[in-house]
Design brief:
Rossmann fold; 7-stranded mixed sheet; 5-stranded mixed sheet
Length: about 400
């Protein structure tokens, strides 16, 4: 199994081979400030007790409080969480927001829990970590299999324990308890703004054929956003299956089908096929929006996309990056492409601290201006350095992190 943290460090090595940095500075970034792991007691509905392993990695806070999501997934482990925290440090620097990098998780299949069990787990998670999180310390958010409701339970628990009811301890909350307008679609919306800023530079047509791996929050919203302006979503997948239609899928109908059946499998408006083959569909734009290590050395030669935009974290391994660069297939990296989520999370944190509430229009105006500025800077730097977009994004992030220590 590929180790995501080792992949992250190899990405760092690729970038620092293009531009040199102080070795002691780089060495510090290869070690998280703190790794927290333990077990949360979860009382099940049947009265039994289950011990859930959990993690919180606080990677770096030189530019601001640690910031990063919490995932509930059966395969979550410390190496994955370390990698995600490392990428968050760089992502916040790329987005030029005043946050550092962190990440959390619990090793559990949360889909097997009842609503009451999920609430008890969420509140217990906060009770265990209440001393190390906080608006000026560490600000968690939702990630894989965690929701605004879970964030609301955690925020409420934090307020009960500490008396701080600002809600700024956690982001991605429902609107009625201090969430931000636009947060639910921010990751996909930010990715679209990046695509919009760079599309013509890649020679892509005005209306593209788009393939999306993963039909959770980011993938589903991406399908809606791209199709709403006329792009054709020709194939999508979820954890069970994939579905394709070369003339374009009816995204609204597909979403309704998934709500009713739990999967894209069997959608009448397309052909169902093996989800493991989704990445190899011919398209203008491939959007990995699932999990890490999807595009690898053993399968990258089968990619037929013209451009790849990473809404997932770490979907492309360093070996695959090298192959794609050699073939002239641009990869818009995760630390740029999906930074809309953490950017709008930071706007939520700012609104909570200031006791303000911004309109969705204001949120997206700020997001679009900021993320497109970063995208164009990264593209221009990559062209000047004759390197790929990931190494360019890493270099920009490293420069900003280094400057914070001057």
């Amino acid at each position: 199994m590929l180790n995501p943290f080792e992949n992250a460090l190899r990405q760092l090595e690729r970038a620092t081979a293009v531009k040199q940095f102080d070795p002691s500075f780089i060495k510090q970034l290869t070690f998280p400030h703190r790794e927290i792991r333990g077990h949360i007691p979860l009382k099940k509905d049947d009265g039994s007790l289950q011990m859930i392993e959990f993690y919180r990695v606080q990677h770096n806070n030189w530019r601001g409080p640690y910031k990063g999501g919490i995932r509930f997934h059966k395969d979550t482990d410390i190496e994955e969480v370390k990698a995600l925290a490392f990428w968050m440090t760089l992502k916040c620097a790329v987005a030029n927001i005043p946050m550092g990098g962190g990440k959390g998780g619990a090793t559990i299949n949360s889909k097997e829990l009842s609503v009451s069990e999920l609430e008890r787990l969420s509140r217990a998670w906060m009770r265990v970590l209440v001393d190390v999180v906080g608006p000026q310390k560490d600000v968690p958010a939702p990630d894989v299999n965690t929701t605004p409701q879970i964030m609301a339970w955690m925020s409420d628990e934090y307020g009960k324990i500490t008396g701080d009811t600002s809600g700024a301890v956690i982001t991605g909350k429902p609107l009625e308890v201090g969430g931000s307008e636009g947060r639910g679609t921010a990751t996909a919306q930010g990715g679209f703004y990046v695509f919009e800023a760079l599309r013509s530079n890649f020679g892509l047509p005005d209306l593209c054929k788009v393939v999306i791996q993963g039909f959770g929050n980011a993938g589903e919203h991406a399908a809606e956003i791209w199709s709403d302006v006329g792009h054709k979503i020709v194939a999508v997948s979820d954890s069970r299956a994939a579905v394709r239609n070369p003339n374009g899928l009816d995204v609204a109908a597909l979403i309704e089908h998934k709500k009713a059946s739990g999967s894209v499998h069997g959608f009448a408006g397309g052909e169902t096929f093996d989800g493991s083959e989704l990445l190899f569909e011919p398209c203008d734009l491939l959007i990995p929006a699932a999990l890490e290590n999807q595009i690898r050395e053993d399968n990258v030669a089968r990619i037929e996309a013209r451009v790849i935009l990473e809404l997932a974290n770490g979907p492309t391994t360093p070996e695959a990056d090298d192959f794609l660069f050699s073939k002239g297939i641009p990869v818009i990296p995760d630390i740029l492409a999906n930074s809309g989520g953490v950017t709008v999370s930071t706007y939520e944190w700012e609104q909570n601290i200031k006791r303000e509430h911004w309109s969705e229009q204001e949120v997206f105006i700020r997001l679009k201006k900021n993320i497109q500025e970063q995208a164009l800077q990264i593209f221009d730097q990559a062209r000047n350095l004759k390197t790929d977009l990931r190494r360019s994004a890493f270099i920009l992030a490293l420069e900003r992190i280094a400057k914070s220590q001057e």
